[in-house]
Recover the amino acids of this structure.
């Protein structure tokens, strides 16, 4: 029988502080079919999950489908969650496995041109000069291109660590890799992105 929850204690209280409650409360709420808790998880993690999924699949639409499939899998498997890892790590592991399978299917059916990175929208920088806004936009585009050009394992590691803020331990659990392997992949990914940015800024200085 699913556990019952005191909504005042488990939903209103922790959410009033702007964060998610402890994992045991999250799991109990999901098992009880609490829609407020599920909505809170969607709001908190879905954007990061999209970025992580995009490391494996060719389009934003595919990444969205991966995230949707992941949440469906979470709902279906929550009763089997054993608490051996955090809820976030468990969900991201489901996401990665789902994205890998989707990416493998796409690689068998899509042309290479489908894997080109999407164009970065130009965002206006508050208080910036037009020239500065252009440079910032170009730099963001370079970072996006550098990430898109990384091998999948490097791309997902740097996305989880530097974009989503996961710890090295969480990344190792999500991807089921050793700490040493995680460090090597992260170092190589960061070096590639850094080299692209350094080359860009040097070319800007020479043109001034």
């Amino acid at each position: 029988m699913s556990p019952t929850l005191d909504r005042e204690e488990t939903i209103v209280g922790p959410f009033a502080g702007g964060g998610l409650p402890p994992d045991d409360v999250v799991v109990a709420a999901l098992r009880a079919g609490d829609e407020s808790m599920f909505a809170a998880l969607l709001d908190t993690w879905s954007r990061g999950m999209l970025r992580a999924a995009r490391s494996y699949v060719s389009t934003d639409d595919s990444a969205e489908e991966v995230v949707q499939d992941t949440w469906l899998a979470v709902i279906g498997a929550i009763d089997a969650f054993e608490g051996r890892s955090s809820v976030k790590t468990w969900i991201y592991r489901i996401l990665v496995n789902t994205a890998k399978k989707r990416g493998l299917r796409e690689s068998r059916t899509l042309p290479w041109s489908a894997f080109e990175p999407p164009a970065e929208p130009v965002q206006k920088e508050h208080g910036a000069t037009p020239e500065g806004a252009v440079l910032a936009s170009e730099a963001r585009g370079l970072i996006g291109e550098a990430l898109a050009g990384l091998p999948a394992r490097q791309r997902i590691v740097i996305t989880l660590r530097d974009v989503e803020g996961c710890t090295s331990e969480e990344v190792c659990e999500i991807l089921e890799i050793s700490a040493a392997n995680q460090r090597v992949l992260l170092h190589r990914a960061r070096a590639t992105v850094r080299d692209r940015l350094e080359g860009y800024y040097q070319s800007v200085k020479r043109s001034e």
Observations:
- The chain has two domains: 1-116, 120-208.
- Residues 109 and 125 are 40 Å apart (CA to CA).
- Residues 1-116 form a domain with the Rna Polymerase Sigma Factor; Chain: A fold (CATH 1.10.1740.10).
